[in-house]
Amino acid sequence: MEPQLSHQVTDSVATVVIGNPAKRNAMTAEMWRALPPLLAELARDHGVRALVLTGEGTTFCAGADISTLRGSAHPAQGLAVAAEEALAAFPKPTVAAVRGYCVGGGVQLAAACDLRLAEEGALFGVTPARLGIVYPSSSTRRLVSLVGPATAKYLLFTAELIDTGRALRTGLVDEVLPEGELDKRVAELTRTLVARSGLTQAAAKEFANGREDRDAHWTEQARTADDTAEGVAAFLERRSPHFTWTPPA
Fold it and tell me: DSSP letter at 27?
């Protein structure tokens, strides 16, 4: 099978699958290019309330396809950064579901997601020092924001792999699940995410990511949306809320 990104939408959750099993789901140049427009399409779909990124089979993503780095890594690295930034900017909650290897560009993608769940036994590594490649500044800053400068330096300086225990302790992942339990937990989490207010989530995501110029925008969105009234009414009536806010066109 040709390397590809595939996706499906079920119960308001889009699942994007990295598929290149012959190379541990390494990302080709074509796959890097395909991710931003796919994310843009899913972002416009009001039926999508959350997104899961995962790998086909028993591994998440072993990074960039090394064969694409011959001569110069810069063009491939530019594609990877564009895909990473598109994922980080996706306006709805994103979850990386990690099994097996999550290395190099795989960590870039996982780190760009809002939440990261991993199956016990997964391995994580940031490996440009093995290849003499300068890791992008934006990716480095994102890694530092997750794990702190000391762990980021360890990962970048050594290019060593770390296990799920260390990834959990350092904040690289949010939860570690026993073997066979990852899909169940991801489904449970995404059901929770799609049941919550998209207005709250969208504003919180921008604020948490450091945007400081949209306070007035979100104040106006909250004023004109029905989510607050619905949330309060549902609480008082002891029922589940039905939030209806969608992003303005």
Answer: B
CA distances from 102 to 23, 46, 48, 146, 186 (A): 13, 30, 26, 15, 17
Name the residue with tokens 């308001």: 12
Predicted model pTM: 0.94
The one-letter code for the residue type at 125 is G
Residues 6+ away with beta carbon under 8 Å from 128: 104, 134, 135, 156, 159
CATH number, span 4-192: 3.90.226.10
Q: Who contacts 45 (Cβ-Cβ below 8 Å, separation ≥6)?
A: 9, 14
Instruction: Measure the CA angle with vertex 52, ends 81 and 194; round to 5°.
Output: 125
Amino acid at position 22, single letter = A
Rounded CA separation 182/201 (Å)? 23
Does residue 64 surpass a pLDDT of 80? yes
pLDDT at 68: 65
Task: Give the span between the Cα atoms of 31 and 36, in whole angstroms.
Answer: 10
